Amino acid sequence: MARKAKVRLYVEHALGAGQMVPLSREQAHYLFGVMRLGVGDALFVFNGEAGEWRVDVVEADKRRGVLACVEQTAPQSQPPDLWLLFAPIKKARTDFIVEKAAEMGAARICPVLTDFTNAERVRVDRLQAHAVEAAEQCGGTFVPEVAAPVKLADMLGQWPEERQLMFCNEGLVGSAAGLSGKPGPWAVLIGPEGGFSEGERSRLAAMEQAHPVSLGPRILRADTAAVAALTMWQMALGDWQ
Ligand code: SAM
């Protein structure tokens, strides 16, 4: 018999033994219209705070439905305190960066407008929906927040004292790749297609918290660079060790 896919759904509702969870119209459409679930079927839900729960469908309709919590199937797990700062690029590639950052365990995703950022309008609600889908797909119990875009200069101007910054500097291409530093709050910074301006480089060079790094011998596209940098950070200081 073919194995049924494990259906996981993010809900913005309290979860606990015996708790009833009402569904939105979109969620009901997805579960009953797309995934073909019905009353009595089981699936898994999480809300970003209470771990993962097995729930049973107790009401199912095209536009609404209700789930009943049965048992907790995984505890809540928080990712390391890692932000991804990236300059938005073309829509599909920006979507990719957000999806991969959520899968790779970033705790917060921050689009930053750099001197050479050349992007269409950033729709934070769409990007947040991509982060939710990625968390549903990858088995996580946490959904990273996608912050509203801010100017990189403004963000660096109010940079938290204790947060280290992995500055992915294309100017170091060809140098040995690697990251050293202490565990704790960190952020990874990836530039746009045009790279960082001289002004941004000098500003970053003057920051005590900034660690300039190379991502190897080739210039990577910004979306590839985001995945490579998150991998490097997770292996050196994160939860892949
Ligand atoms: N136009 C720039 C150039 O030719 O120098 C390249 C920018 S690259 C497409 C986009 C971003 O990815 C860079 O700003 C940097 O943050 C990161 N990146 C790409 N390759 C890198 C490398 N080998 N080392 C460090 N950072 C890299």
Any overview of this molecule?
The structure is a single chain. This protein is α/β, with parallel strands linked by helices and 241 residues long. It folds into 2 domains: 8-74, Beta Barrel (Ribosomal Protein L25, Chain P), CATH 2.40.240.20; 82-237, Alpha/beta knot, CATH 3.40.1280.10. Helices cover 29% and strands 24% of the residues. It has helices spanning 25-34, 91-104, 124-138, 152-157, 198-205, 222-237, and strands at 8-10, 20-22, 42-46, 52-60, 65-74, 82-86, 108-113, 145-146, 150-151, 164-168, 186-190, 210-213. Strands 6, 7, 8, 9, 10, 11 and 12 form a 7-stranded parallel sheet that branches. Helix 2 (91-104) packs across helix 3 and helix 2 packs parallel to helix 6. Bound molecules: S-adenosylmethionine (SAM). Residues 168-170, 172-173, 190-191, 193-196, 214-216, 219-222, 225 line the site of S-adenosylmethionine.
Notable traits:
241 residues, alpha/beta, Ribosomal Protein L25, Chain P, Alpha/beta knot, 2 domains, seven-stranded parallel β-sheet, five-stranded mixed β-sheet, 6 helices, elongated, binds S-adenosylmethionine
Q: What is the class of the largest domain in the CATH system?
A: Alpha Beta
Average pLDDT taken over every residue: 95
Bound molecules: S-adenosylmethionine
What string gives the helices and strands in order?
A: EEHEEEEHEHEEHEEHEH
- Taking pLDDT < 50 over at least 5 consecutive residues as the criterion, the unreliable ranges are none
Total beta strands: 12
Computed over alpha carbons, the radius of gyration is 20 Å
Q: Helix count?
A: 6
Helix content: 25-40%
Inertia-based shape: elongated
CATH topology group of the largest domain: Alpha/beta knot
Q: What is the CATH architecture annotation of the largest domain?
A: 3-Layer(aba) Sandwich
Task: Characterize the largest beta sheet: strand count, sense, and whether it forms a barrel.
Answer: 7 strands, parallel
**Computed structural class:** alpha/beta
- How many distinct folded domains? 2
Tell me the span between the first and last alpha carbons: 37 Å
Strand content: 15-25%
The CATH homologous superfamily of the largest domain is named SPOUT methyltransferase, trefoil knot domain
